[in-house]
Design brief:
The structure holds two protein chains of two kinds.
Chain A lengths: L1 H7 L4 H17 L10 H11 L6 E7 L5 H17 L3 E6 L2 H18 L8 E6 L4 H9 L1 H4 L26 E6 L5 H12 L3 E5 L4 H9 L6 E3 H12 L4 H36 L1
Parallel strand pairs in A: 1-2, 1-4, 2-3, 4-5, 5-6
Chain B lengths: L1 H6 L5 H19 L19 H32 L5 H16 L2 H4 L3 H20 L2 H22 L11 H36 L10
Classes of the chains: A alpha/beta, B mainly alpha.
């Protein structure tokens, strides 16, 4: 038995790749249906958005790309569903260029196709502007100077829902869907905290560590942490999506990686004991 | 640079052809050919039916997603080969990592805290056996542990998330909210003070490395 464990420690890494591929693919075809329970941070985001007064102006900022789409896109879709269901006005900006494509897809899918809403009256895609935190500061001070036209080339002055929206303080809430820099932290530092406009965020799992101090201090109202956070939000709004379908695969993959680590360490201890003996 | 590689037939010149073709393809899609005549220049970048949007949806997005997805395989392989408990800090890191990895996903929220308690008794038994090398002590410890946990669980009705300290989702939230935030805040303050100190040095002319001195 110990020889077998030691032998496994020198296994070709392609076998590990194969095992990981199988544990990810199989649950996608044969779902386990594991129940999803919302964590306190996800529940906080849900409760904050649910408590917004009817017809609130909500700024959704999309700063993610195709590489982080599986984690962030499901939460953007769920948040948009929640906002449109409660009949809020949704304004979308992007601090990443890729974000504009994905935001456009999300708005078309949820706003146009699912809810049958009207562009310019119920939702608007302001689009991407280069400049990182300078864009955030520009939105805070004078949004109309930064955005003279929206992503479709329409003048801001000709968009009905832009009436009365001149700077960041005219929004009632901000949701930042962020995969890195610039993103949540820049929104907190330059926009939400100085103006006291409430904000929540959804980030990749790896970014949660960086953002958690802001959540703990109350500067950010909850956080959707990666794909699990997206799946929890889908469960809360009652519309399962990509996040939920990916959870079985992620659960099994995490378990397998933990087993690999434990097995590797068992082999390491056996080897260490043998070398001490001899 | 890529053209040079192709002309001089340097190693990997065939891949440079893809780079050059991709470059010109993107230039054409961005500046010369829209694909959808009803869309204005500028907005053609994200409008439906344009060549640029097609490139993003069917080439760039899948390629970027694939590159990122490769990480999963390399993380698994690297964890298996390199993650070793060599000292106390590595043990702490490993245990915290396992708690968060399992506690964060639905699987973790379906693992009863009583299962974790039984696991801890088993690990405790292994530890006692390796320290004292006495089978009697090990047997007593494991038996008493199992009896206590089973009695407590039976009397409480085996609630999934109690005792909370052994429920993985609560544990992982605690790790995120307290030790992680403490460390992250310390790092942020250190970075902030470092930026302040370096800026003062630049302003006062003490630091001259940026001008080559």
């Amino acid at each position: 038995m110990t020889d077998l464990i030691l032998k496994m420690g020198t296994v070709d890494r392609r076998w590990i790749f194969l095992v990981i591929a199988l544990v990810v693919i199989v649950p996608l075809f044969f779902p386990l249906g594991l129940p999803i329970r919302a964590t306190a941070t996800t529940q906080h985001v849900y409760d904050t958005i649910d408590a917004l007064p009817h017809g609130s102006k909500v700024l959704v900022s999309c700063e993610y790309g195709p590489s982080t789409k599986p984690e962030i896109h499901p939460m953007v879709l769920s948040v948009m569903r929640h906002l449109f269901k409660n009949e809020h006005k949704v304004y979308v900006t992007c601090l990443w260029p890729d974000g504009q494509f994905l935001a456009s897809d999300a708005l078309n899918l949820v706003g146009r196709d699912e809810y049958g809403l009207t562009y310019g009256e119920d939702y608007v895609l302001l689009g991407f502007r280069p400049g990182n935190e300078a864009v955030v500061k520009g939105i805070v001070s004078n949004l109309r100077k930064l955005y003279t036209i929206d992503a479709k080339g329409t003048k801001i002055t000709e968009i009905p829902m832009m009436d009365g929206v001149n700077r960041f303080e005219d929004f009632d809430f901000l949701f930042s869907a962020s995969a890195g820099y610039p993103g949540t932290i820049e929104w907190v530092q330059y926009a939400a905290d100085p103006t006291n406009v409430p904000m929540s965020t959804g980030t990749t799992s790896i970014q949660v560590n960086e953002v958690m101090p802001y959540v703990s201090s109350g500067q950010v109202q909850g956080i959707l942490a990666g794909m699990p956070g997206a799946a929890e939000y889908e469960a809360l709004i009652g519309v399962p999506g990509i996040g939920t379908s990916g959870m079985d695969a992620q659960s099994v993959a995490h378990l397998v990686i933990v087993l690999f680590i434990v097995l590797g360490n068992i082999g390491y201890f056996i080897e260490r004991q043998r070398s001490k003996k001899y | 640079m890529q053209l040079q590689k192709v002309f001089r037939k340097q190693q990997g010149w065939q891949y440079s052809i893809f780079a050059i073709v991709g470059f010109f393809f993107a230039i054409i899609a961005g500046f010369f050919y829209k694909g959808n005549p009803d869309v204005a220049w500028g907005t053609h970048v994200t409008a439906d039916g344009t060549l640029f949007k097609w490139i993003f949806t069917y080439m760039f997005a899948p390629l970027q997603a694939t590159m990122f997805a490769l990480l999963a395989f390399f993380v698994a392989s690297a964890s298996y080969r390199a993650f070793r408990i060599r000292n106390f800090e590595a043990t702490l890191l490993l245990v915290a990592g396992i708690i968060i990895m399992i506690g964060r996903v639905p699987l973790g929220s379906n693992i009863s805290s009583w299962f974790i308690l039984y696991l801890l008794v088993l690990i405790g038994g292994i530890t006692i056996n390796s320290v004292f090398k006495n089978k009697q002590y090990t047997a007593i410890f494991v038996s008493v542990g199992i009896i206590v946990i089973t009695s407590a669980g039976s009397s409480l009705g085996w609630p999934l998330d109690q005792p909370g300290i052994f429920y993985l989702p609560y544990l992982q939230e605690w790790i995120y909210k307290y030790p992680n935030v403490a460390g992250a805040r310390a790092i942020m303050m250190g970075i902030g003070m470092g930026i302040f100190a370096t800026s003062i040095r630049y302003i006062l002319g003490i630091e001259k490395s940026y001008i080559g001195e």
